[in-house]
Amino acid sequence: MIVVEGLSKSYGGRRAIDGVSFTIAEGEIVGLLGLNGAGKSTILKILGCFLLPSSGTARVGGYSVESDPQSIRRLIGYLPDVPPLYDEMTVDSYLKYVARLKNVARADVVRSVSAAKEKTNLDDVGSSKISELSHGFRQRVGIAQALVHNPKVIILDEPINGLDPVQIVEMRDLILSLRGHHTVVLSSHILSEITKTCDRVLVVDHGRLVAEGSEVDLQSRMVANMRLSLDVSQVPAGFADRLKGIDGVAAVQYVPGQGIERFYVETSRDVRAQVASLTVNSGAGLLGLSRGEAGLEGLFMKLIKPVEERAHG
Fold it and tell me: For residue range 149-205, what is the model confidence (pLDDT) as tens digits?
């Protein structure tokens, strides 16, 4: 459904995205994950035909964003990071207006608006002014306007931004309900929500695609570089050296404490069983053993550049 090859976009001398390539199949929910300023919105704006690329190609439904943007616009629904709402209009009048803008047949406007409201749970606020709605409901109206012409592709830029915990769960359920019926591309800097809603994740940093795959795919990459946190008491002499002797352990860092001693174990494979066995058999008290980094979150932090590097890069 979406094919991107070598996509780049520059603003003056600054390159916002650099040689990005990926494909998205019909019916998938795919998330763009990255820190603010990583280039996610630029990618979505190009797919939505709001920006032209500086180089590379992007095709949606077989159409080029450069040579046939109008055909793409008929295929997609787009929610930018700031929803394009008219506060003085009611929800119903606004959605009818958008439906007409998107060339929904006059005879089908009421039905299309009703279907969009049902999908986004807006039936009870149809007569309300948009200015009277909470932030969560405004986001729902933003998604409803992206759905009102029943597009094949839905593009959502930071759809959960600013929502409270209850609203985030509701938005997550809404996005999941679109799976299979629409191809969905969404962006976020919140890793936990991306992994709960998306079939695949594209990790973007400094305008480049640095990793892609399902949550399981990305988590499997953590095995190549694990960091274990080991808490012990009554540490025997030479304990750190014995940890270093375990096959796969690259380094051991010792952090002294009062009653509880901590060791960080850098390893190329999962050696938790060996570490636990060595600790118990050495006579030390095993108080805790866990990964020092939280799975996919740890990988995400490894893939992106540190803040200080970002500031000077």
Answer: 999 999 999 998 888 888 889 889 999 999 888 999 999 888 778 888 999 999 999
Q: Which one, of 214, 154, 187, lies nearest residue 39 by Cα?
A: 187
The residue count for the chain: 313
What's the helix, strand, coil split of the chain in %, to 5? 40, 30, 30
Rounded-to-integer distance, Cα 49 and Cα 80, Å: 12
Q: What values do phi and psi take at 286, rounded to 5?
A: -85, 110
CA distance 193 to 169: 9
Phi/psi at 101 (nearest 5 deg)? Answer: -60, -35
pLDDT mean values, one per 10 residues, the chain (313 residues): 96 92 96 90 96 96 96 94 93 97 96 95 95 93 95 94 86 90 91 86 92 78 73 93 93 85 88 95 93 60 54 39
d(CA 9, CA 127): 42
- Pairwise CA distance, residues 33 & 190, whole Å: 8
In angstroms, what CA-CA distances link 39 with 9, 32, 119? Answer: 9, 9, 30
Residue with tokens 């866990």: 290
165-177 and 135-147 helices, crossing angle to 10°: 10
Rounded to two decimals, the pTM is 0.75
For the chain, what is the radius of gyration of the CA atoms?
25
- 5 touches 56 (CB < 8 A): yes
